Amino acid sequence: MKFLPTSDADRAEMLSAIGVSSVDELFKSIPASVRRAPTLPPPLSEIEIPIFERFQLGGEQSLRGFQQGAVVPVNPDTYEVFTDPLGRILGGDKFFIFNVEYQFLQIGPAKLLVFFDVGQNYFDTQSIGIGNVRSSAGAELRIFLPIFQAPLRFIYAFNLNPIDPVDQFGFPISYLAEKPSGFTFSIGRTF
Description:
The protein is mainly beta. The chain contains three helices and five strands; from the N terminus they run H-H-H-E-E-E-E-E. It has two domains: 1-40, no CATH class; 46-187, membrane protein fhac: a member of the omp85/tpsb transporter family (Porin). Strands 1-2-3-4-5 form a five-stranded antiparallel β-sheet, with no helix packed on it. Strand 1 and strand 2 form a beta hairpin. The radius of gyration is 26 Å and the shape is extended.
């Protein structure tokens, strides 16, 4: 039976049902040293969110046509990435992704489809908006083989607006540089 006391009368009814007269009496068998409030560490500020808990988009599971983890927040005017005091590139604390697929041919275990992916990754100080989004379009061949229980995916994608992110000193970051198009092979589903 579910019971959520919402008033003093509800609390009194609950306490009488279990045979005690007050909340203090309910907890008196627990030693006082154990009853104290737990000591919790102070909360982290936005900049202190661990790097591995920040969002990095890209790859066949989010935005096809981008390298895995290569879509990081950038300044929309300069394409400068956001870094911490040690110079490490930071991911976002919020993002959106919109994937659209249209399957137009199926022959046996093979499906041919076209797709359009759009999304963006935002830093703590950025607000979510539809300007400066990252997008790609392309075609994908999926072959379902019973032995894998997942499709083999052959993806050819066009990056609709490739950028070259730069570091805090204005130098290009080669592993984040975006190609205008590319081929990807994967095993598994998008969604």
